[in-house]
TrEMBL record:
Residues 17-112 form the Prepilin type IV endopeptidase peptidase domain. Gene3D superfamilies: 1.20.120.1220. Keywords: Membrane, Transmembrane, Transmembrane helix. PANTHER family: PREPILIN LEADER PEPTIDASE_N-METHYLTRANSFERASE-RELATED, TYPE 4 PREPILIN-LIKE PROTEINS LEADER PEPTIDE-PROCESSING ENZYME. This is Prepilin peptidase. The chain crosses the membrane at residues 45-71, 83-116, 151-169. It holds the Pfam family Peptidase_A24. It comes from Eiseniibacteriota bacterium. Belongs to the peptidase A24 family. It comes from the Bacteria. One of its GO terms (biological process) is signal peptide processing. The lineage of its organism: Bacteria, Candidatus Eiseniibacteriota. GO terms for molecular function: aspartic-type endopeptidase activity. GO terms for cellular component: plasma membrane.
């Protein structure tokens, strides 16, 4: 099944505008993500009825939900989560989930590139191993997560890349 233009075009416009804002200001405005979510839900209701709305709502919740732990841990901004929720609202379920997973992979690749550029690749990889071990072994413990390198980068380009991959797979 192909992704209709009325879905693909808004996803590309919203993520493109978010990349521009995030790279320039390190913020993704609510004035972009809020209307994008709302319009995605309304568009799916209009063109797909209640089943379309349900798909959009589930896509929004699942895609945004996959990035939510990153915000809760302080690894990304709330705008990144809201942008992914908007993409999920437009792509629906399950394609929004696929886009979120592709986004996380693209973010990992970008993080490796940024770490290498800043001379922190070895430390970043080691911290990822320690963090993975902490996440698996912590169980009911309430110990804080290990310290990261503190290197930050705009995440909207990863959302754009994940969205493009999802659209390419489905187009």
């Amino acid at each position: 099944m192909n992704v209709p233009l009325w879905v693909a075009a808004p996803v590309l416009v919203v993520t493109g505008l978010a990349v521009r804002a995030d790279v320039r200001t390190r913020r993704i405005p609510n004035l972009l993500t809020g209307p994008a979510v709302l319009l995605g839900l309304v568009a799916h209701l209009t063109f797909g009825g209640t089943a379309g709305l349900a798909s959009a709502a589930l896509g929004m919740a699942a895609a945004g939900g996959l990035l939510l732990p990153g915000w809760l841990m302080g690894w990304m901004g709330a705008g990144d989560v809201k942008l992914m929720a908007a993409v999920g609202a437009w792509l629906g379920f399950p394609l929004g989930v696929f886009a979120a997973l592709a986004t996380l992979m693209a973010g990992g690749v970008i993080a490796l590139i940024v770490a290498a550029q800043r001379g922190a690749l070895k430390k970043s990889v080691w911290n990822a191993v320690v963090l993975g071990s902490w996440a698996v072994a912590r169980g009911p413990q309430s110990t804080p997560p290990p310290v990261t390198t503190g290197i930050r980068f705009p995440f909207a380009p990863a959302v754009l890349a994940g969205s493009l991959i999802a659209l390419w797979v489905r187009l």
